[in-house]
């Protein structure tokens, strides 16, 4: 058995067996800093109401926390990625998830690693009830039978990775993506498709794929080099976030009746210099999507309580709207 598969099976089995330890303490002081009511409340005590939407049998908060900052995926450079990962100990991740639940955020989206499943189990052992969405990786995509190991842990959904799907499309292998989604649904789990290219969403819709929901990036980061050359004369260094991209993806999102969860709302932190800039980015995202859609935002509560700030931001922006399923807590 190849080593990557052994690591995958071992991590899934360990989480299912409850090997992770509960979060008995919160060393970063986030809950204490949020005030005595937050620090003393139980995991079920929601301080703030957030709008929810229906996704299959699940009710999902319209603000979902993303996992990238916790695990060192900065989308900037290696040093900042290491800075993120150094702070996000298992105890701090567990604390942040508990804080999310108290602010009405009830869903977490992350990529599979041994560490993420361990942190999920740790959160649940501490009384947390966070729902979760798993983003695929090459190992699962190449051996869909491994979906069984994840399905046993009761995820809300399993999503095919967007960059991988777009590479397969360019190589004439979209049938592999379709096979993966079918395998997910056969396990009784919601099947999602992630993407950056709005034309892929439109193609999948035109062909009426059996997909339950989409994860859609507001920015088309995965453009092939020749397209960047055509647009800008050359392929720039690093990730490029064109201001015109969100409107184009928003058009594709509004054309489908299926739920869409949008990510890269803050352009991987490039739109977060001031509270006003963050407000504008959140407002733009909600204006681009449908009432049954949500946003995925990575949070890094090292220097401020971003969880409470973002939950409050969503409550303010969506307050005039009547659509969506409201939090019943």
Structural commentary:
- With 329 residues, the chain is of the alpha/beta class.
- The chain has a single domain (58-311), classed as Phosphoenolpyruvate-binding domains (TIM Barrel, Alpha-Beta Barrel), CATH 3.20.20.
- It has 15 helices and 11 strands.
- Strands 3-4-5-6-7-8-9-10 form an 8-stranded parallel β-barrel, surrounded by 5 helices. Strands 2-1-11 form a 3-stranded antiparallel sheet, with no helix packed on it.
- Helix 11 (198-206) links the parallel strand 7 (190-195) and strand 8 (213-217).
- Helix 11 runs parallel beside helix 13.
- The chain is globular.
- Residues 1-22, 32-44 and 322-329 have low confidence and may be disordered.
Entry summary:
The protein is an alpha/beta fold and 329 residues long.
């Amino acid at each position: 058995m190849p080593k990557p598969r052994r690591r995958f099976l071992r991590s899934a089995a360990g989480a299912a067996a409850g090997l992770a330890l509960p979060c008995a303490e919160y060393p970063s002081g986030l809950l204490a800093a949020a005030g005595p009511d937050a620090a003393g409340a139980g995991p079920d005590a929601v301080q703030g109401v957030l709008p929810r939407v229906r996704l299959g049998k699940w009710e999902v908060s319209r603000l979902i926390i993303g996992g990238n900052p916790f695990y060192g995926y900065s989308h900037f450079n290696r040093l900042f990625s290491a800075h993120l990962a150094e702070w996000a100990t298992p105890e701090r991740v567990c604390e942040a998830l508990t804080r999310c639940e108290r602010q009405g955020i009830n869903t977490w989206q992350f990529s599979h690693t041994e560490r993420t499943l361990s942190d999920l189990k740790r959160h649940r052992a501490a009384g947390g009830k966070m729902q979760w969405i798993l983003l695929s990786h090459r190992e699962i995509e190449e051996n869909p039978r491994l979906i069984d190991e994840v399905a046993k842990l009761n995820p809300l959904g399993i999503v095919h990775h967007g960059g991988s799907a777009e590479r397969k499309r360019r190589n004439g292998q979209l049938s592999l993506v379709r096979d993966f989604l079918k395998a997910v649904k056969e396990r009784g789990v919601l099947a999602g498709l992630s993407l950056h290219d709005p034309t892929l969403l439109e193609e999948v819709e035109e062909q009426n794929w059996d997909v339950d929901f989409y994860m859609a990036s507001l920015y088309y980061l995965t453009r092939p080099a020749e397209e960047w050359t055509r647009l800008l004369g050359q392929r720039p260094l690093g990730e490029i976030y064109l201001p015109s991209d969100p409107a184009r993806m928003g058009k594709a999102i509004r054309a489908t009746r299926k739920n869409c969860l949008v990510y890269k709302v803050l352009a991987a932190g490039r739109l977060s210099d001031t509270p006003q800039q963050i407000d504008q980015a959140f407002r733009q995202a909600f204006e681009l999507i449908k009432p049954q859609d949500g946003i995925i935002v990575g949070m890094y509560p090292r220097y401020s309580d971003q969880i409470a700030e973002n939950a409050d931001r969503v409550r303010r922006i969506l307050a005039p709207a009547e659509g969506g399923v409201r939090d019943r807590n």
